[in-house]
Amino acid sequence: MAKKGKTIFVCQECGYESPQWMGQCICGAWNSFVEEKIVPADTNPAARGGAFGDRPAAKPAHLKMVGTADYDRIDTGIGELNRVLGGGLVKGSLVLISGEPGIGKSTIIIQTAAGIAAEGRTVLYVSGEESEEQIKLRADRVCSSIPESLYVLSETNFENVEAACDNLKPNFLVIDSIQTLYSSQLDSAPGSVSQVRMCGNLLMKLAKTRDIPIFIVAHVTKSGDLAGPKTVEHLVDCVLNFTGERDQELRILRSYKNRFGTTSEIGAFRMEAEGLKEVRDISATFLERSEEMSEGSVTAAIYEGSRPVMFEIQALVSPANVGFARRTSVGIDNQRLSMILAVMEKIVGLQLINQDVYINVVGGLRPEGTGTDLAVALAVYSSYKRAVPKKRTLAVGEVGLTGDLRAVQNTDKIVKEAARLGYEQIIMPVRNAGKIGRQVDGCRIVGVKNIQEAFYAFTS
Question: 3-class DSSP state for residue 91?
Fold first, then answer.
């Protein structure tokens, strides 16, 4: 760390501090250093008393004697957001939400603020990017009504925001965004590494000492990562990411970190003119034409949090005209696709070296894990052989390098959802099928050992 009262140079890419200006940082970035002045510790209240300001000398406690209590949660008024947060907002928590520009971050924030204010709680919406009139225009469009206890403040100085909190004493605070917020304790510009780090610490102090849940909106880089130092992600209690395609209505809210709940839950929304609408049956959204069986189309499923999600995987295999064959995928990892194609060539004997292969997950979903391997392989096989299954088929399973299928988790819950949606057969690893049975609610369970058996079951 830098010495008191010194001028340092901070890399805006990684946060590395240097006593002198450097052309290239240790992280590899060029011309990324900015000059900053460090306030002496005796004039910097945030530097005294630890993370939360002045406090008496710490006294260790016996872990066995530490009491535990259920966290009080605040209903946001949005069921899908409550699901991702683990049941609602925890008092004193710091929640960071990020996403591409125009994806709907500010929309879901103002809807959440209006929902909490409608319960009689005081809400303060602080924006450094928009004027109060712009926020009012959005609220008129996406909120059915604007509660009296919803306040708005167009401000970028943290000390002024803190003073407003002292006067208003809100039950919920929104900061849109942390890249526009700055503290007078530093001379650097808003959005710099030092300012983001400082404001993150000050917001944490504000949340924990006054028991205020805070929503922080954060920008993303070109690669999709959170802008600013990684310290902020470690600092907050929950990190949410809002994703979706701009040309499509569906938006997915996913939790990457949650100290008060699971990180496997997702929330689904549909962007409409009146704002974001919750999608209760997410599988129906991804399977709009599920009753039509066509070449290169296979239904896959994953288990997200507390519910199964089913979606369509499409494949197109066509002869390569010139040069090397192309391997293009949307929603599936390219390296995973290359491995599956290599197994199909080596184990099954399909000649795909001179074939272009295109894979698409319909709806813009990006499934995680390896449970979609079998569905991808069957979709490629269907397009290459021009084969269509005789029954409505769903496939789950991980493909190994030997061609064997490995078991996946939560297949029993996936089977129940597939039977409810009217699927006639499910192809899965034999280990999973042995625990479920041969048939569930009229849906036939087909257990297969390897990828060859899966291809035979798909066409028979």
Answer: coil
Break the chain down into helix, strand, coil percent, rounded to 5.
Answer: 30, 30, 40
Q: What percent of the chain has pLDDT over 70?
A: 90
**What is residue 379's three-state secondary structure?**
helix
For residues 355 and 323, what is the distance between their CA atoms, to the nearest angstrom? 11
Q: Phi and psi (nearest 5°) for 274?
A: -90, 10
User: pLDDT by residue (tens digit) across 370-389?
Assistant: 999 999 999 999 999 999 98
Taking each helix axis from N to C terminus, what angle separates 158-168 and 193-210, rounded to the nearest 10 degrees? 10
Cis upstream peptide for 177 (omega within 30°): yes
Per-residue pLDDT tens over the stretch 171-211:
999 999 898 999 988 888 888 888 888 999 999 999 999 99
Lowest mean pLDDT of 24-28, 203-207, 317-321, 335-339, name the range.
Answer: 24-28
Q: Are 39 and 183 a contacting pair, CB within 8 Å?
A: no
Q: Could you tell me which CATH number the domain at 73-280 has? A: 3.40.50.300
CATH class for the region spanning 285-459 = alpha beta
Spell out the SS3 assignment of 110-160: HHHHHHHHCCCCCEEEEECCCCHHHHHHHHHHHCCCCCCCEEEEECCEHHH
Could you tell me which residues come within 8 angstroms of residue 388 by beta carbon, excluding any fewer than 6 positions away?
293, 294, 295, 382
Closest alpha carbon to 402 in 449, 369, 338, 457: 449
d(CA 193, CA 172): 26
Q: What is the pTM of this model?
A: 0.74
Report how far residue 15's alpha carbon sits from residue 75's, in angstroms, rounded to the nearest whole number. 37
Closest CA to 154 of 184, 174, 183: 174
Q: Which of 312, 400, 397, 392 is nearest to 359 (CA)?
A: 312
Residue 244: strand pairing partners: 251
Q: What is the mean pLDDT of the chain?
A: 86
Specify whether the backbone of 224 is left (phi greater than 0), alpha (psi in -120 to 50) or beta. Answer: left
pLDDT single digits (tens) 89-99: 999 999 999 98
Q: Locate 317 and state its tokens.
A: 């295999």
- Could you give the C-alpha distances from 159 to 23, 55, 152, 174, 386, in angstroms and in order? 34, 21, 16, 15, 66
d(CA 138, CA 91): 27
Best CA proximity match to 90, nearest among 79, 102, 76: 76
